[in-house]
Amino acid sequence: MTDTKTAPTRETFRKQLEDTQAGFHQLLGSLSEDDFKKKSGNQSWSNGQLLWHTAWGLEFVPQGVDRARKAKNLNLPRPIFNVLNPWITRFGSRGITIDSVGKKYDEANAKALELLATVKDDEWEKGVKITGNFQTIEYFFSVPANHFAEHKTDVLKSLGRA
After folding, report:
1. Coil, strand or helix: which one is 137?
2. Backbone phi, psi, residue 46, to 5°
3. Of these four, 13, 83, 106, 113, which has the most CB atoms within 10 Å of its CB?
4. Rounded distance, CA 48 to CA 38, Å?
5. 133: phi then psi, degrees, rounded to nearest 5
6. Helices 47-58 and 98-116, packing angle to 10 deg
7. What is the full DSSP assignment across 69-126?
8. How many whole angstroms separate alpha carbon 14 and alpha carbon 117?
9. Per-residue pLDDT tens for 84-122?
10. How many whole angstroms separate alpha carbon 49 and alpha carbon 56?
11. Residue 39: beta bridge partners?
């Protein structure tokens, strides 16, 4: 039996990144200052912190791709990552505004789109172990949409819009 899986296209991921960016800004633009500061459906953070966390997560696409290209694992145990993640978000999101979170997302998305143009057809399955899980270049480009969808639900839940 031959493997009929075809490599993902840059166009598919470009559209996904652009659509996710539009959705992120639509959600962000629908929030009042009070909504932004309100506790999210995620116990750890406010809506603003959660959206900052989502933008921060997008910044990992270039790092993940670079690690995959170099086969450089990140041997941070998952339990340690799980403890650090809320604290990094709380610390990193101090003083945020709706505008600053939007800019953070846009800058990270622009870098991901720029990087996407450099991925060669034979690189999609290159991967690396991060926090114990094998992750490919294809995976890194799929994360932003999935991550946003997960946390959009948390924001909408807190506002009674879920």
Report:
1. helix
2. -80, 170
3. 13
4. 8
5. -115, 140
6. 20
7. HHT--B---HHHHHHHHHHHHHHHTTT--HHHHHHHHHHHHHHHHHHHTT--GGGTT-
8. 9
9. 888 989 999 999 999 999 999 999 999 999 999 999 999
10. 10
11. 46
Which tokens belong to 89?
Answer: 């978000």
Q: Which residues pair with 74 in a beta bridge?
A: 130
Q: What's the distance, Cα to Cα, between the start and end of the chain in Å? A: 44
Token pair belonging to 53? 């966390």
The helices-and-strands tally (H runs, E runs) of the chain is: 7, 2
14-28: pLDDT as tens digits: 999 999 999 999 999
Q: What is the rounded distance in angstroms from the CA atom of residue 148 to the CA atom of residue 25?
A: 11
> DSSP states of 32-45 as a string?
-HHHHHSB-SSTT-
Count of residues making up the chain:
162
